[in-house]
Request: fold
Amino acid sequence: MKLETSCIRAEADHTQILRCKEDLNAVSTSIEAISKIMALAGNEVRFKILFLLKRETELCPCDFADILEMSVPAISQHLRKMKDVNVITTRRDGQTIFYRISKKNEDFLTAILSNITFEKKIA
Amino acid sequence: MKLETSCIRAEADHTQILRCKEDLNAVSTSIEAISKIMALAGNEVRFKILFLLKRETELCPCDFADILEMSVPAISQHLRKMKDVNVITTRRDGQTIFYRISKKNEDFLTAILSNITFEKKIA
DNA sequence: TTTATATTTAAGCATTTGCTTAAATAATTA
DNA sequence: TAATTATTTAAGCAAATGCTTAAATATAAA
Reply:
C-alpha cells in the first residue's frame, strides 16, 4: 500500500501522516457533529440568538425580531436551522412559540458563550 | 422614544426587549469576534485542521493535503483565512512553512476541541 | 544561474447562505 | 363563522464560500 503524497520533501513524516489519518477516522462522527453546531453558531445572528436564549431562558420569534431589528421570516429561518439539528427546542403557548436551548447542547454552548466578555462603558 | 414592535401580543415584555438590546450592545465586540472564530471552525476541513494542530503541535500545508486528501491550494486558502484573524501562526523552516494554533486562541479552541469524542472501534 | 520544490495567489465557477416578499398554517378573538 | 395575530414556508436573488486550474513567489539544490 503506497501513500499518496503531495510534497516530496525528505522530512515528510509518513508515519505521522498515517497516524493523523487514523486519528481523524476515529473521531469523524464527532467532528462532523460539532463542526455542524459550530457552523450554526458561527453566524452572528444565530450566535446572538443563542446568547439571548442563554440569558433569558426562552423567547419567541417576534421577540428576536424586535431585539435584533430583523424581519420575522428571517429570524424564523435561523431558528429553523438550529431546531433542525436539535440545538434548540420549542414549546407552544397559544399562538406563541417559545424557543430555548436544548438540554442536549446546553453544556457545550454554555462553555462557548462563557467566553463572551462585557465591554467597559466609556464615559 | 417609541419601541418598534413586530408583534402586538399583550404578553410582549417591552422591558425585556429593551434589556436584551442593551445587553447585546454591551457584548457586541466580543460577540463579533467569537462568532468569527466559530464561523472559521464551523467548516469541517478547518475544524479538522485545528484538531490536527492541537494533537501534532505543528504541520505544513502539504501535510494537511496528504492527511485530508485535498489539493494544496485548497488547504492553503483555508490556512490563510485562519491566519488572517490570528487563529493560527506560521514559522518558516527553509521552504517549509509550519502552522500552529496561536497562543491567543489556544484556550478557547482547546475548550471546543475537548468536546470531540473518540468512537468505539467496532469489531 | 538554472532547476526543482513548497507555498501562495488569482481567476473562474458551482454551490450555499441569508435575506426579501408573498403566500400558507395555525390558533385566537369578535 | 370571519377576522386577527403569530409563525412558518417557499420562491427569488445577491453575496459569500470553497473548490479547481494556472500562474506567481520564495527558498534550496544542482
The CA atoms of residues 24 and 31 of chain A lie 8 Å apart.
